[in-house]
UniProtKB/TrEMBL annotation:
Belongs to the sigma-70 factor family. ECF subfamily. It comes from Mariniradius saccharolyticus AK6. This is RNA polymerase ECF-type sigma factor. InterPro entries: RNA_pol_sigma-70-like, RNA_pol_sigma-70_dom, RNA_pol_sigma70_r2, RNA_pol_sigma70_r4_t2, RNA_pol_sigma_r2, RNA_pol_sigma_r3/r4-like, WH-like_DNA-bd_sf. CDD domains: Sigma70_r4. Signal peptide: none annotated. Residues 109-159 form the RNA polymerase sigma factor 70 region 4 type domain. It comes from the Bacteria. Gene3D superfamilies: 1.10.1740.10, Winged helix-like DNA-binding domain superfamily/Winged helix DNA-binding domain (1.10.10.10). GO terms for molecular function: DNA binding; sigma factor activity.
Amino acid sequence: MTTLEFSYSLNKLSSSLKPFALKLTRDMDDANDLLQDTMVKAFTNKDKFTEGTNLKAWLYTIMKNTFITNYQRMVRRGTFVDTTDNLHYINSGDILVENGAFGDFAIDDINNAIEKLEEVYKVPFMMHFRGFKYHEIAEKLNIPIGTVKNRIHIARKLLKGDLYMYQHRN
């Protein structure tokens, strides 16, 4: 495969990688950075790609490994080695002690907001929250998959509105 063909194939597949990058990073800017890092690594290592194999799978593997490496690097950056005799690894983050009261209030507010949802929204939302896939919810409730996705979306939107006070809290 020529460099031009390889570059064209990478460009064509980049749009299908973006949702995976967003799922990994949960941030659009970080997803774009991860996608760019993946493309650069793929292009610089094009000689390691075996023609006739699945390029898309190869790119997904590069992306996943890049994400893991970046995550591990970030964790290491936040940890330092204590050079005292005990040689403990200590997280360097600020020490913060909470009594959990805020968390209890938040959980109560979340549960109350969920209870206020209409059943048509609450049931699919809770099934999805418990780990059911969209198609499983559709089968169990005997409704189209598009309806399931729509009801879960509406439930999230309603919950976001009810729980706006927690939106920018760390």
